[in-house]
Task: inverse folding
């Protein structure tokens, strides 16, 4: 399921806060976030694996970005759950 994020991760600038990258992230997320088995921590692990992030101490700049994206995904999931959308 998390391979839906590949279209976002394959773009060289995926880790920037550029509006186009953010749009790509949310478009990819929209294809999986409503699935009953979606889990933002599992998505985080998938993205870490795809980008070969092996650190867990914040020393890798990409690690921080992936963590932030997982938090965004979790917020979207919670919003959808609360609003029934």
Result:
């Amino acid at each position: 399921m998390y391979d839906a994020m590949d279209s976002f991760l394959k773009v060289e600038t995926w880790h920037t806060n550029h509006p186009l990258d953010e749009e790509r992230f949310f478009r990819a997320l929209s294809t999986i976030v409503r699935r009953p088995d979606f889990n933002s921590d599992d998505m985080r692990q998938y993205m870490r694996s795809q980008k070969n992030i092996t650190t867990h101490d914040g020393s890798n700049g990409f690690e921080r970005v992936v963590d932030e994206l997982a938090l965004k995904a979790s917020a979207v999931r919670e919003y959808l759950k609360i609003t029934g959308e």
